[in-house]
Records
---
Amino acid sequence: MHITHAFDTVLTEYPESDGQPMAENTIQFRWITTIQGGIDALFSDRDDVFVAGDLFWYPIEGDNKTRVAPDVMVVFGRPRRDRGSYMQWREDGIAPQVVFEVISPGNTALEMIDKLEFYDTFGVEEYYLFDPQSMTLKAWQRNGERYLRLLKENPVRSPRLGLSFGIEGETLVITRPDGRQFETFVEMYHRAEKERERAEKEHERAEHLAAYLRAQGINPDSI
């Protein structure tokens, strides 16, 4: 996503869109939605964790040009509710603690350096940069006042999220604290369908057994 840096004392409107698409291709879109949806589901029982995708983050009040729209951002300590943008001064001054970017063919090296500087400057604790084309993952985690690039870790563990991110073959495997892995929506649908079919077969078997017992003069409810 496009980043601009400037201070404007006249304009005080904060646009909610830059007119650019959320993703440039289906691969990028699939990974953005998988990461955002998986993290949102992970913290679905908490009202103080806000998870968003492709949402403008404005860190400075009165400055509508210094902004960035992370592919995915996670904010602990803020209510789970809808927003048109994330204006930090209206959010108790809390910056997103975790940010993800999924690289697309249109992203330039200069743009990604600019984003890294932005996230470092405005206090992001953990920054993950995933390239689905080359299947590489880069990670930075804050160490005091500076970012520390994690060079050899695979998988990489997120202290904030409790997740691990590892490149395995031709995919990025994201593992929850309970050992379950993130799934795409299609994968979740197929798994749910299999569970439904299994439950139906179990019900049919139970019904057949109950009918057999009744035919033998046995009340199945008494067993």
Note: The longest helix spans residues 185-215.
---
Amino acid sequence: MKSDIDSSALAVFLFFFIVVTLIGFIASGWRKPDTMARIDEWGLGGRSFGTWVTWFLVGGDFYTAYTVIAVPALVYTVGAYGFFALPYTIIVYPFVFMAMPILWRRAKEFGYVTAGDVVHGQYGSRGLELAVAATGVIATMPYIALQLVGMTAVLKALGLHGEVPLGVAFAVLALYTYSAGLRAPALIAFVKDIMIYIVVLTAVALVPWKLGGYANVFASADTAFQAKGAGSLLLGENQYVAYATLALGSALAAFMYPHTLTGIFAAKSAATIRKNAVLLPAYTLLLGLLALLGYMGRAAGLHVESPNDVVPVLFKTLFSSWFAGFAYAAIAIGALVPAAVMSIGAANLFSRNFWKAYVNPDVTDKGEAQVAKITSLVVKIGALLVVIFLPTQFALDLQLLGGVWILQTLPALVFGLYTKWFRAPGLLVGWFAGFFLGTYLAWLNGLKPLQLIVIGDTQFTMYIGLLALGVNVICTVLINALLPSKSIVRPSTRSVAKN
């Protein structure tokens, strides 16, 4: 470690980190069931979370280090283009309101824990189930890695360098997640969200005041962008399509991830999900305010080693040490909560859709839960490897890369909720085409999620995930239309729970 440690900020940070750690371990006794040795108890909290718990949990695992670190970093670098995350969080909730209650009913009725369970129950295809489950795990790796990037930026601002502090933080996370399952991040999310709101509301009120008002913030940021020769307060004409496709693609992908579906499946009723689809847009206001911190970083004249450092450095520069420590704790906890839910979601997929399906079909409930617990530890190690081996100049790219993959599970997971026309072979071919095309294009673009499209004299850039999803759907429809019709055994929906 270096000698630039801010002792006051570190003391405040450690206090709140210890408090949250204690809450994480206490959570194992919160709403304690007869046994935790079942995957729906450990991994879904017994499907018992009401409106407020679900609101904090889904908000906690949806608004993550992506929100606090990555979005302001992109705005700091490129300006208005980084605000695509704002319309995406507006578009997503009508989709949640319409589709997720139906999905919840299906999962509740048949005891499904994962997206893979839903797909296998709908289509009776182990191949399609495995494709959906594997995609969920793979797409989760860069998303957890994004949380690690956020943690690293905070620890760096505190003066803690190297891999040991990050390793210690995630070891603590692993221990209470192993012990309490989904109950731990659900309980911690209350603290995390309250802290984040305090930090953001304080920042958007006091930072502009310290910088001469919002008019000066925008004027100074614009001047900084012009001097840099890149970025702008307004979208350029060549950014319209990229902006729109990033927003739409991200919205469609958001609730396909294992961690967001875990929050949905953990709700106690379909009505709870509908209420949350109405209430969760309150977080969109929070996201918009957070994005403004990127402009404030420009207006403050900050020069950082990495764009991911802009928010921690902004607090370090403009606030007292104790409040900076509080802000760092909020950001760190804001990374740990979703990381916990993500590892649980990925672990549920492995236990249900690989271990039970292929390795030990006769595994007991206790054995299934134990496999999930161990897998949740392994997933965190995988995320560390992503951080080590993938470039993270723009942490947002990690989330968008995962989005390219997880979008390809949407047809298999959602189409069957509304029609029985689609069948497993077509969906599997579509998934294969979309997944590998998306991966190939991302690789060609240096793991960037955007692809240049040239049609005659017209050129534009669009989100690779949405492009791959289009190919996916076309292939699915064509293959399904060409297949001879036959009777398909589907799960009965006559007794779907009413809520």
Note: Residues 492-499 have pLDDT under 50 and may be disordered.
---
Amino acid sequence: MKQNFRTRTKKLLILALLLSLVTFGAAGLDTVIGEAGLMLNGMREHVRSQETNLGNLVTDVIRERMGADVAIYNGGGIRASADMGEITLEDAMDILAFQNDVVTLRLTGAQLLEALEYAVSSYPQASGKFLQVSGIRFYFNPERAAGNRITKVLVGGNELVRNRNYTVATNEFLAAGGDDYSMLAAAEQIEMGDVHDQAMFIQYIQQNSPLFPTVEGRIVVER
């Protein structure tokens, strides 16, 4: 299955590239694809240590596109911010620069909790493994030992159930165990998106501007 998964990945990347050439033609990277009603915060020290409005936007895009219960995205995969105002093709490409495919996984509540514990294990140090999330709200206490910091998790407004299965959309990097997310690599892969995350993001901006993503309390630090 792994070999087939990577073969499909290459084919989709080629298709996405061809589609982008047709769509944007000679207009180039300065093509305006949408508008932000406020600054989209992708600052390195922020996306790697706290909830940001851009992290919320990115995860909302892939969760909605994949029809998943939850979406998670490593803060290290968000590479730039965008100022309030016009968003160009180059802006969007800089934000999600790696063109990762999007994968839906089946995780138990226990596996999802394990991933969240790992995400905050280095806090308050900024770390690329820190997760931006959608469809979920979680609370953690950084005074507790790493691996035992999460105090509460809500999925779709309901308490997480450890033995229940959830669909989780993420990028291929994490799905393959990147940043040492071994629990994601061990999970069942259900579906792969029709285009990579950058293309999903560009299409969403085109179809939903102006954008007004906010910080909503999806990640709560308890003291």
Note: The first strand starts at residue 32 and ends at 36.
---
Amino acid sequence: MWRRFNQANALAQAVSAQCGVPADPFAPKRFKPTPPQVGLSRSQRALNLQGAFRIAEGMGARIEGKAIVLIDDVMTSGATANAASRVLLRAGARRVDVPVFARAV
């Protein structure tokens, strides 16, 4: 967001338009500012994101019992997708699928 462009949201909006399913980029909202993940190990990345996401107020009913598609633009360790997915599942999502558009190796 500091770049003033959210590429994962742009991808989600395109997928949403193509599939006819509404997109909400802030259902799992990042509430805790975290330092950049660059240079961190897999375990450090997971620790860095602990408690970073919460379900936005009023979104619980839109998540409960639903199959959620969480769009990720680039996956490195999977820590961000994992942290956001866990919050969605705790909020009652039936399942969370995470399509990834690029994989960093």
Note: The radius of gyration is 14 Å.
